[in-house]
Amino acid sequence: MPSLGRLHLITDSRPGRDPLAVVRAALSAARAELVVQVRVEDDATDRETYDLASRVVALCAPYRARCLVNDRLHVALAVDAAGGHVGADDLPVDAARRVLGPAALLGATARDPGTAAVAVAAGASYLGVGPCNATTTKDGLPAPIGVTGVRAVAEAVDVPVVAIGGVTAAQVPALRAAGAYGVAVVGALSAAADPARATAELLKALTC
Fold first, then answer.
1. Among 178, 72, 68, 165, CA closest to 110
2. What are phi and psi of 7, to 5 degrees?
């Protein structure tokens, strides 16, 4: 199984954002410790997703960083990404594992120990757990689970737990203490005035 970095950057393709510029800046600071998860808006075409994902894979390659594709696993295969990530409304984890094959990284979303254990048994390599806090980067999310919810999942599974949802560098120590292997962020980097510096601060908090 490929190695998993502790800092996951989820691309922000909302109007007015430049996901590739943020990816470049984050890679310059985090290098192989960065995982870039390509996530697009629901109305994006497969071609648009492919174009973005292929460019992200190319950016990641010199740094040996991993690129994953959210939901659209056929695109992950087409661009030779390291794997993919599926949420509650995407393919079931066992089906996603069959699509990607045994060697790929496969993330799954979970928010409680029960669904987490099912996802791991079905083949998840790691779990994205949250939302930890309220966030505006994605619509229709359930209520935040906080540090307590992250701890409950981390204690129930033996794969890396990546906390997501409004995470800031200041919150990283508490999440790590709760058992989180790493964190996934969107706005903390895409809305930062200096994404490279924000990446360095997150990484420093994760590795202290």
1. 165
2. -110, 120
To the question of whether residue 90 is assigned a binding role by annotation, the answer is yes
Read off the pLDDT of residues 29-62 as tens digits, 9 standing for 90 and up.
999 999 999 999 999 999 999 999 999 999 999 9
Consult the annotation and say whether 97 binds a ligand. Answer: no
Is 5 one of the annotated binding-site residues?
no
* Residue 47 is assigned to a ligand binding site: no
The answer to whether 166 is annotated as binding is: yes
Taking residue 193's Cβ as centre, other Cβ atoms within 10 Å add up to 6
Total domains in the chain come to 1
The answer to whether the annotation marks 204 as part of a ligand binding site is no
Q: Is 171 annotated as a binding residue?
A: no
133 is in an annotated binding site: no
Domain presence at residue 1: no
Q: Give CA–CA dist 108/92, Å, rounded.
A: 9
In a domain, 31, yes or no: yes
Per the annotation, does 155 bind a ligand? no
Kindly state whether residue 94 falls inside one of the protein's structural domains. yes
**Exposed/middle/buried for residue 6 (C-beta within 10 Å: 0-12, 13-18, 19+):** buried
Q: With CA atoms as reference, report the closest residue to 41 among 83, 71, 82.
A: 71
- Report yes or no on whether pTM surpasses 0.85: yes
